[in-house]
Design a protein that fits this description.
single chain; two-stranded antiparallel ribbon
Length: 83
């Protein structure tokens, strides 16, 4: 048996929204999606299309790999201890 490949896409949307003071509704309006879609993405209940992922990264002014990853991001508290 081969190991299963996870289809999960991890993201930092909520963290970026908090850092930049952007509400779910404001992000959704800027992207042209329903505000609940932003919640589904943040919780990992839905994966974005490539087009939407690129637009989200562009909105926050960061590379797409800063927002999305196929492996979990390190916790912020873990990163501050290593600095």
């Amino acid at each position: 048996m081969s190991p299963q490949v996870s289809e999960a896409v991890h993201n930092r949307i909520a963290l970026l929204r908090a850092e930049q003071g952007v509400s779910r509704r404001a992000l959704a309006d800027a992207l042209g999606v329903h505000y609940q879609t932003v919640g589904y993405l943040e919780r990992g209940e839905n994966n974005p299309s490539l087009h939407l992922a690129l637009r989200i990264a562009e909105f926050f002014g960061v590379p797409v790999e800063v927002v999305f990853s196929t492996s979990p991001f390190p916790r912020v508290s873990d990163q501050s201890h290593s600095a």
